[in-house]
From TrEMBL:
UniProt entry keywords in alphabetical sequence: Ubl conjugation pathway
Protein name: U-box domain-containing protein
Coiled coil: none
Lineage of the species this protein comes from: Eukaryota, Viridiplantae, Streptophyta, Embryophyta, Tracheophyta
Length: 362
């Protein structure tokens, strides 16, 4: 059977487009029906989708060049074939999800469960519709959450699956249960896999995008956990593994982003303000890691705006002005902007304090 190249397809016209699109779709369905899973079918599905998009553009252009007679029959056939393929894929996807959940619930071997989770990751990676299909399976999410307490590899795969699901706004509330958040806190602070810790922090970041979830993180002591994650990574200067250093930097950076998000609601800002030496901790981040200056300056602005005690602590740090001045010159664009805002706030307060002092002396 002859396989058209991309250039030949454009030259051959709509008939060849339809042929190649249908062939790609049938190949994908063939892999799925044989039970070879999404890993075997995915390249053909992607190719079918790309060809269909290309085909629609070409066929619409061809029809427009006609004499007002409407679309070509091939375009109509393609649309009908696409609808049929979507229906079949929907059924196959639901069956695949059910099969994966059954395997995860069974007493089957480690490798079977690993493959089931990898399949769920592939299914939910780029498709909001598929994520909702997982939600429709009442046993799927509880089963995946239970695997967070299993082996390190299965925990990491489970976190990846849950993170994919959390990308759908309608799933964020469902996933933000207290037990899940507390387990994520434990994972972040554990001495185990740095990759799992980073995934747990990323998942918290995704869930925190929903305002309704922010109060739950405050109750679950997540803010203190994130502050510990930021401070802990400072003590690894002797680490020589580039991968580990990158994971620790990613974890600290993600933790600061989440703290910035949580600081936007009352419980979050109060938890930060009540943290002993919060200003000193953020200033230390500014000194040690220029790449994280944006998140640290954001938190400093918020706590100083909301707390007179934090402002007093900031004014009592002799090197704070110098550190902020350095960030305002060497930091990223947003970090420079935030550092400049913070410098102006502190300078204005310093002028006010000096004015009061002069008045008292008079």
């Amino acid at each position: 059977m002859y396989i058209f190249t991309g250039t030949e397809l454009e030259e051959a016209g709509p008939e060849a487009q339809v042929y190649h699109e249908v062939r790609s779709a049938i190949t994908a369905l063939h892999h799925l029906l044989k039970g070879e899973g999404y890993h075997a079918a995915e390249p053909h599905l992607l190719e079918a989708g790309a060809r269909m998009n290309q085909g629609h553009h070409l066929q619409e252009g061809t029809a427009c060049q006609g004499q007002g007679q409407g679309h070509h029959p091939e375009a109509h056939l393609l649309r009908k074939g696409l609808c049929l393929m979507e229906i079949v894929l929907l059924i196959l996807t639901k069956n695949t999800i059910s099969e994966c959940v059954s395997q995860l619930q069974s007493d089957c071997g480690y490798e079977v469960k690993q493959k089931a989770l990898e399949t769920l990751i592939s299914i939910t990676k780029a498709s909001p519709q598929n994520r909702n299909l997982v939600l429709q399976n009442n046993e799927a999410i509880p089963t995946i959450l239970n695997l967070l307490k299993s082996s390190p590899t299965l925990e990491k795969l489970s976190l990846s699956t849950i993170f994919n699901l959390s990308l759908n706004p309608n799933l964020k509330s469902t996933l933000a249960e207290m037990a899940t958040i507390q387990h994520l806190n434990t994972t972040i602070l554990s001495r185990g896999s740095l990759e799992s810790a980073r995934l747990a922090a990323s998942l918290i970041c995704s869930l925190a995008m929903l305002d309704k979830n922010k109060a739950v993180f405050g109750v679950a002591n997540t803010i203190q956990v994130l502050l510990m994650a930021v401070s802990r990574s400072k003590g690894h200067a002797t680490c020589t593994s580039p991968t580990k250093l990158t994971c620790r930097a990613d974890l600290s950076g993600t933790a600061l982003v989440i703290l910035g998000l949580l600081a936007r609601f009352d419980e979050g800002i109060q938890a930060l303000i009540n943290t002993p030496c919060i200003v000193s901790k953020m200033v230390h981040v500014l000194k040690e890691r220029c790449m994280m200056s944006e998140g640290a300056t954001e938190i400093l602005i918020r706590v100083i705006d909301e707390s007179e005690e934090c402002l007093i602590e900031a004014m009592g740090l002799p090197d704070l002005m110098f550190v902020l001045a350095e960030v305002s010159v060497r930091g990223s664009t947003r970090a420079r902007e935030k550092a400049s805002i913070l410098l102006k706030k502190l300078e204005a307060n310093e002028s006010y304090e000096e004015g009061n002092l002069a008045f008292l002396k008079w």
